[in-house]
Design a protein that fits this description.
The chain is mainly alpha-helical. It is built from eleven helices and two strands. The protein has a two-stranded antiparallel sheet. β1 and β2 form a beta hairpin. The radius of gyration is 26 Å and the shape is globular. The chain starts with 23 loop residues before the first helix and ends in a 9-residue tail after the last helix.
Length: 328
């Protein structure tokens, strides 16, 4: 006669909605991490409140439309100032920088992580890390003394062969202190940042995915296209947003290279233009109390633009499951 086998009692389940306390170290770490997040949110809220309050003091006395006016004369009688030129210059220079830097950064990251020999990949990664640590004023001096003179020939070529596109139609004269030059300089500056992040993401691709593709007869490029790039999409987006954040807020390099002007021009090769950060750095010392409030109002717009860009990137990643590395 068979006797029923005895089974060990199942461990009691934790009540729903409660977490096990764990050790004291875990509780301390949880408290510190949660407190750090709360402090960060409080700091961001305090910055936003300060900018909004000081901006409201200036915008309430502005006799022009703050969002569409081209002039910047807060010391005038009556005061008139607007951010149209600053927003245009900031967005255009950042778009140029991203269009140049992101494809190059992806290519460099792929070469370092999957193509270059180990003896060459390590020094290249080290040099890229060093480029990310170069101060922005050094980039600005290089741009003013080297990039601006040497872009004269490129600007002439673009005007001759692509002038029919209007944006590359050079109508003015003088050195190449234009938004196009600023965009190229920003591309050089953000290239190391984007490359480093993308390279680290590509190095995290599961080795089994690549070996399985090679075993099925895939070429090196097919492995990159089917395994590496899908896995690294979220990292590429995050790295691009990190670089875009630096491009939007760059100050000294832009102020060193750009010839500021509040005359609107759709010709990217013509000298002139302006950005939020460059305008604040150039006018803050000479501005009175009301002028500084006006500059803070423009800083509030830059703050909002940066938040919207980063928020949009997070939404793209969250809504596209295929960007997740686990789904690759």
């Amino acid at each position: 006669m068979d006797t029923p086998t005895s089974k060990a009692p199942a461990p009691p389940e934790a009540p729903q909605g409660r977490r096990t306390t764990g050790k004291a170290g875990d509780r301390v770490f949880l408290g510190l991490s949660r407190g750090s997040g709360i402090v960060l949110l409080v700091i961001m809220a305090a910055i936003a409140a300060f900018l909004a309050y000081r901006a409201s003091l200036a915008i309430s006395k502005d006799q022009a439309n703050f969002l569409t006016a081209f002039a910047w004369n807060p010391q005038g009688n009556p005061p008139e100032f607007g951010i149209a030129i600053l927003a245009y210059g900031t967005v255009v220079s950042s778009i140029i920088a991203m269009a140049v830097a992101v494809p190059v950064a992806i290519g460099i990251a792929l070469f370092v992580s999957h193509y270059a020999p180990r003896k060459l990949a390590a020094p290249m990664a080290y040099v890229i890390d060093l480029l990310a640590a170069v101060p922005s004023i050094v980039y600005g001096l290089w741009g003013a003394l080297v990039l601006v003179p040497y872009l004269a020939g490129l600007n002439q070529w673009l005007d001759e062969y692509l002038g029919w596109t209007y944006i590359f139609d050079k109508t003015g004269s003088g050195p190449a202190r234009s938004l196009f030059t600023v965009g190229l300089l920003l591309a050089v500056m953000i290239l190391p940042v984007i490359t480093n992040v993308i390279r680290e993401v590509f190095l995290q691709v599961p080795r089994m995915h690549e070996e399985a593709a090679l075993a099925l007869g895939a070429t090196r490029w097919e492995v990159i296209r089917m395994s590496v790039l899908p896995f690294g999409r979220s990292g590429i987006i995050s790295a691009s947003m990190l670089g875009l954040g630096r491009a939007l807020g760059e100050t000294m390099a832009v102020a060193t290279v750009l010839s500021p002007s509040f005359v609107f021009s759709g010709h990217l090769l013509d000298p002139g233009g302006g950005t939020f950060a460059q305008n604040i750095a150039a006018k803050f010392n000479e501005a009175d109390a009301f002028g500084r409030d006006a500059l803070i109002a423009s800083g509030l717009v830059l703050f909002v633009i940066t938040l919207l860009v980063n928020g949009a990137a997070r939404l793209i990643i969250a809504r596209r499951k295929e960007y997740s590395g686990a789904a690759a």
